[in-house]
Amino acid sequence: MKARVHVMLKDGVLDPQGEAVRHALGSLGFDEARGVRQGKVIELDLEDGTSEARIGEMCEKLLANTVIESYRIEIL
Hints:
Blueprint: E1 2-9, H1 16-27, E2 40-45, H2 52-63, E3 69-75
Antiparallel strand pairs: 1-2, 1-3
């Protein structure tokens, strides 16, 4: 089975990479981009029957820094 984990900075946490992308978009004439948040997507190839709770443990212990990041699990 496959799962996808979407990790994003929590609201209120500064995102310098997102701000750099927003600035670059403006420089290229894309002024409609008012804000950009950058995150990461992690695809996992797992043994069949791996529970979402188990994937959550992976996120809590390694895949996301839960102090400043939130995550969402998508089972494919």
